[in-house]
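Researcher: Good morning. I'm working through a list of sequences from a screen, and I'd like to move beyond sequence-only analysis. For each chain I'm collecting a predicted structure so we can compare shapes side by side. This is the next one on the list. No need for commentary yet; just the structure.
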Amino acid sequence: MIRNILIHPDPRLKKPCEPIAEVSAELTQLAADMLETMYDAPGIGLAAPQIGVMRRMIVMDCIKDAPPEPMVLLNPEVIWSCEDLSTYEEGCLSIPDQYADVKRPASVKVRWMDLSGEIQERQFDGLWATCVQHEIDHLNGKLFIDYLGPLKRQMITRKMEKLKREKARG
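Model: Good morning. Structure tokens for this chain:
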């Protein structure tokens, strides 16, 4: 089921999320809904708080032209990051049609629990590294615009407020 994506500013997007204690049928369904919502948007990542679920869960798939490689990460955490930085033009499904360059570690190692309850670790590079860091930020109440200067951040926030007013009018 495709879920509604919250648009910034929304207080839920600025709140840290609760860890997930155990995998349940409800959580597995949430993962399926999140992947369907992400692909429909279309996007390459989605965090649970973006659909109003305040749990530490992200989905992502950075493969564009090949068979999809959907990933579901519960309680993901960066356990290592390289010193080299890379800059990607980031966007966000909660901040539609707004993009900005963000510098992040070029490579990170992440530990998470998968949907079978197993602990996984993987090193991510390139777009995958940027995506996983962007989505983990969501779980901590941080948006990509928080990396920008105050003027640019305010300008984007005003655009989103206007967009929300226009949507509310129908």
